[in-house]
Amino acid sequence: MYLVENPESYPTYSATVTSINEAKVGGQKKCKHWSNLKEICNLLHISVPLNSSILSEEIYFQHVQVKAGNSVFRMGQPFKMLYIVNSGFLKSTMIDEHGNEQVLNFPMKSDLLCMDGIYSNRLTSEAIALTDCDLIILPFEQLALLGRSHVEMEGAIYRIMGRELIREQTMRVILGSSSAEARVTRFLLALSDKFSLLGYSSKIFNLRMSRQEIGSYLGLTLETISRTLSSLNSIGLIVVDRKSIELKDIDALRAFRKHLSINPYSKKEQSGMQKMMINSLLPLASRLKGQEICAAS
Amino acid sequence: MYLVENPESYPTYSATVTSINEAKVGGQKKCKHWSNLKEICNLLHISVPLNSSILSEEIYFQHVQVKAGNSVFRMGQPFKMLYIVNSGFLKSTMIDEHGNEQVLNFPMKSDLLCMDGIYSNRLTSEAIALTDCDLIILPFEQLALLGRSHVEMEGAIYRIMGRELIREQTMRVILGSSSAEARVTRFLLALSDKFSLLGYSSKIFNLRMSRQEIGSYLGLTLETISRTLSSLNSIGLIVVDRKSIELKDIDALRAFRKHLSINPYSKKEQSGMQKMMINSLLPLASRLKGQEICAAS
DNA sequence: CGTGACTTTGAGCCAGGTCAATACCGGTGG
DNA sequence: CCACCGGTATTGACCTGGCTCAAAGTCACG
Q: Would you state the pLDDT for residue B37?
């Protein structure tokens, strides 16, 4: 938001050929820290040849801090730059014609924001910080310029956009074809994978978002999220207490995430192990109830 | 498929600096016709300055023909080029871990195929021709090369990828939050818009895909698609007979497409005109039944 | 004119949405 | 310290949209 509030100052904080120390003393409140290209490539998991001339260039990108609950940018604003999440958690949302909010994503460290603005030069989504965040500003023009002189960088930009495309595609397939249990399970496993990639625990973590937000993201209601988590909890696959999650049996969860709700294309082939697995895993709620009755009696 | 069957010949059919006539006589069966950059920019609705040096370059791209029912490429194949649809209709699908097919898209004239291969250099989807198709091959390296020397072209590539991203995002929102009727209605309206953009009738058109495929695309079963089309038919908003569709009241359809199924974020605000509209439009099936009873008695 | 792929329609059922009551937690103020 | 309060989570009871299964109709094609 800092940047967006005074867009006329845009040229001044775009990548600058200067030293880190000089940059740091820049008077702007928002400019706490600057990153060079190498740090950014590491953050994005882009492998650029170490001897590449690009890394030796003294180009620095500015950071911004956003407090929990504040929005980074809003729908409809002009698109000028991308953000990389350096730390913190956000939600990216879209507001439809009725004012209904739909959560598109929960960006965290190493994710990129604002890519949806590239097409029309207008942002079609907005981002809200769920925790205090540190973001790095990547002016898009600057990035494209780098791409022009450095082929590896250009390839990296294309690949990053391509990755986003695949991510969206995958989410679509999930929303289009899997059951509530499968969606929640996938969601937890995806978080787990992400955390482990970032060096955090893949088994114990905190949800930063509400049930409502998870529901919106997965195309379910908050009650269904709550119930599904409770079910997974009571059959021992996870331990959940409010926002804290512990995955007790990742392999079982991985098996679990698979079963679909509609459009089983190849029913005939589903007779063997497949069907058995479904039978053993599917009656979650009923098994749960049985258990509770046992516990009660 | 032609190309993919002999990938070793790849360098020979990449963009060539030669005349159309010379190109046409090339012996390869698949090479019926070549297009220059200008034709391609027109096809993609890219506005490139007319005096741009890029258009005067004699660069030609080869076409391929694919017969109805054949696949253009398959999942897992290495990614080398994009295709632009010049004529015909296709479906783009993804096969999940169980062999279940999910339809991602129904590409038609001016759409691009294979963009999901950019990230990992492997195709994650496949494309099957629903009718005979004429496709133009765009070797990706070649395209990137053009982007490097012509800034407008580079921008166009970014924008096209960005557009795809937004398209996926929009589909996600639809799958995540709207009812069966809304999805089918949106689907019909999107087709209508597309056809009108391409210069065909926006009111009368033929579906090239089966109910099964529409269902897979929209995250519904074929029966639901069939029933919903029948309902829309019997209340007079459309006329449907097998694959032929006529939209009778586009404005009513546009109003109709809106109502959601879950997660109404701002219920309180929905009290006025909004609610009235929903009440008047929602009871589709029940109204339909009433009508049928009348007709029968 | 049979055969197979696609579509329509009906009947029944269930996953997940809706509504509502209760519980829990963190913050605030007396 | 406790009482209160608003936001969030859980849980139950109920209902319905859309899935499932099944049967019958339609069309294309050899």
A: 87
- Tokens 């995002």 locate to B169
Average pLDDT over residues A111-123: 96
Q: Minimal Cα–Cα distance from B128 to chain A, Å?
A: 16
Tell the residue number behind the tokens 């955390």, with chain if given.
A195
Least confident of A22-31, A143-152, A206-215, B203-212: A22-31
For an interface test with A, which of B118, B138, B222 has the most A Cβ atoms less than 10 Å from its Cβ?
Answer: B118
Contact B235, A63 (CB under 8 A): no
Residues of B in Cβ contact (< 8 Å) with A172? 104, 168, 171-172, 175
Backbone angles phi, psi at A52, to 5 degrees: -60, 140
Question: Six-digit token pair at A3?
Answer: 């940047």
CA dihedral (B95, B97, B100, B105) positive or negative? negative
The string of pLDDT tens digits covering residues A60-97 is: 999 999 999 999 999 999 999 999 999 999 999 999 87
The answer to whether the beta carbons of residues A241 and A230 sit under 8 Å apart is no
Q: How far is the CA of A262 from the C1' of D20 (A)?
A: 10
Q: What is the DSSP string of B46-106?
A: ----TT-HHHHS-EEEEEEEE-TT-EEE-TTPBP-EEEEEEES-EEEEEE-TTS-EEEEE-
Contact B63, B55 (CB under 8 A): no
A2 to chain B nearest CA, in Å? 25
Torsion, Cα A30 A31 A37 A42, to 10 degrees, reads -60
In the sheet with B244-247, reading across from the earlier edge strand, the strands are: B204-206, B244-247, B238-241
Q: What is the pTM of this model?
A: 0.82
